UniProtKB/TrEMBL annotation:
Organism of this sequence: Belliella marina
A Pfam family reported for this protein in Swiss-Prot or TrEMBL: SCO1-SenC
Residues of the Thioredoxin domain: 55-219
Membrane-spanning intervals of the chain: 6-26
InterPro entries: SCO1/SenC, Thioredoxin-like_sf, Thioredoxin_domain
UniProt entry tagged with the keyword Secreted: no
Highest taxon in the source lineage: Bacteria
The keyword Membrane is annotated on this UniProt entry: yes
UniProt keyword annotations, A-Z: Copper, Membrane, Transmembrane, Transmembrane helix
Protein name: SCO family protein
Family: Belongs to the SCO1/2 family.
C-alpha cells in the first residue's frame, strides 16, 4: 500500500511539473521559440464593422466599466498590468454558453491563486443578467472571488465593446434566447490591453492552448 501511495505521489508531481518544464524549455532553447502574436499591430481592417478604428496604430481594448456579480465596478482600468481572459455569454443561453462556462472553470482552477490573471465573462443580455442573476451563475460554476468576474452593463456599450473592442460578432436576440448571436471565442488580453489570442471556448484542446499561452505570457519573455 505504501508503494502505491509513493507511485501516486510521483505521478501527480510529474503532472504538476509539465507546464513548468514547457515554460523552462521555451525560455532556454533559443532555437525553439513559442511566438504569441500581438493582434492588430497596424490597426483593425474590418469594413463589416461600424467602428471608429484608428489606422496604422496598435489596437487596444477601449475604456469601459461594468458591474460584476458583487455589485462592484470592474472594467478596463482593472485590466491594466494583468492578463485577462474574456468571453461574451448570457446566463439563459441554450446552446454554447454552458460548455464555454464549464471550460472556463478549468481556466479559473489553474490560475485560482495567481493574482496577475483574471477572467471577465461579459453578458450580452444585460437586461436579464442582473448582478443577482450573475451571482447565482457564478456560484453554479464555482467562480473564485476577485478572480472570475461576471459583468453586466449598458447594452449598447456591451455590443460596441464586443464588436469594436474585442473584434467579435454580437447580435441582440431580444426576448428570444435562440436569436442571440455571439462568438464562442475566449480572448487573451495582456496587461497593456493588447489582444494576444483567440481560442474556441467549446473545444478542450483550444482551452488547453489558452492555458499554456497564458502561462508563457505570465512567466516567459516575449
Amino acid at each position: 500500500m505504501r508503494g502505491i501511495r509513493v507511485l501516486q505521489g510521483f505521478v501527480l508531481l510529474c503532472i504538476l511539473m509539465v507546464p513548468v518544464l514547457i515554460i523552462v524549455f521555451l525560455k532556454t532553447m533559443t532555437t525553439n521559440t513559442y511566438d504569441i502574436p500581438v493582434y492588430y499591430e497596424s490597426g483593425v481592417d474590418n469594413p463589416l464593422m461600424e467602428c471608429d478604428f484608428v489606422e496604422n496604430e496598435q489596437h487596444r481594448i477601449p475604456s469601459f466599466e461594468f458591474t460584476n456579480q458583487y455589485n462592484e465596478k470592474s472594467g478596463s482600468e482593472e485590466m491594466k498590468g494583468k492578463i485577462t481572459v474574456v468571453d461574451f455569454f448570457f446566463t439563459s443561453c441554450p446552446s454554447i454558453c454552458p460548455v464555454m462556462s464549464t471550460e472556463m472553470e478549468r481556466v479559473n482552477d489553474v490560475f485560482r491563486d495567481i493574482d496577475d490573471v483574471q477572467i471577465y465573462s461579459i453578458s450580452i443580455d444585460p437586461e436579464y443578467d442582473t448582478p443577482e442573476i450573475l451571482m447565482k451563475y457564478a456560484e453554479l460554476h464555482q467562480a473564485t472571488k476577485d478572480k472570475w468576474h461576471f459583468l453586466t452593463g449598458d447594452k449598447d456599450v456591451t455590443y460596441d465593446l464586443a464588436r469594436c473592442g474585442f473584434i467579435l460578432p454580437a447580435m441582440d436576440g431580444g426576448d428570444v434566447p435562440d436569436d442571440f448571436v455571439h462568438s464562442d471565442k475566449f480572448v487573451l488580453v495582456d496587461g497593456e490591453g493588447r489582444i494576444r489570442g483567440y481560442y474556441s471556448g467549446t473545444q478542450r484542446e483550444e482551452v488547453d492552448r489558452l492555458i499554456v499561452e497564458t502561462k508563457i505570457l505570465l512567466y516567459g519573455k516575449e
